[in-house]
Write the structure tokens for this entry.
Amino acid sequence: MSHRPVLPSRNHCASWLGRLLAICVLGLCGPASATAPAPGRPVVIELYTSQGCSSCVPADAFLAQLAARKDVVALSLPITYWDMLGWTDTLATQANTDRQKAYAQAMGRGGVYTPQVIVDGRKDLVGSKDAAIDQAIAAREAKLPDVPIKLSLLPHEVHVVVSSARMKSPTPATIWMMAVRPRATVKIGAGENAGRTLTYRDIVTGIKAVGIWKGKQVTLDLPRAATGAGPGEGITVIVQQGGYGQILGATPIDWPATRK
């Protein structure tokens, strides 16, 4: 049974974000590879946003400001439920909306709103609370769960290795592959942001569960078409307990020459 989402008030929505990192491009003719940066992996920040939400604009801008951070993997996930208020979000997907609703259920929340931030799959924050988000990133444990992920890209395929890790009775974790568009500029034609031209960064355009990790090494070879990444898009791989729990590992990478 579907549930009507709890729409945000203008005062309840506001600003947030983080930064997508660890890009490794080794040229058009050879493979590219990336691994989670030492000494520990970055914190994953997910922003749920909408072109129809005026209070999301500062949050989207905050993402651009934090674009250079190396301690954060930032993902912008435009959702669909604001579309009923006069403007159809040109970047929103049902998969993003479903992911936000799944978090709400997993965390025992009564509904969803924008801009909402999910920190490392464990904690949600109102996107307007920039200082609280920065504090959550800064207060990361000395040793986050860190399941190393290695990505190797060839022009037409991706090789994924999720390493083994010493964990007591590890909960089976979902291996998510997300297609990520580095940048998009949109002229808004109606709704709360009518007349504005807004730029979005690191936008999730596709989400796929591609495997299960149970503590031992998993190797996946996927053709580029199976990743869901379109022209000019990269991918981010996330290993997450259950499906919407603690994130154990994350690594983003661009296809060669996609980010300019």
Q: What stands out?
A: The longest strand covers residues 197-213. Residues 32-253 form one domain. The chain has one domain: 32-253. The two ends are 43 Å apart (CA to CA).
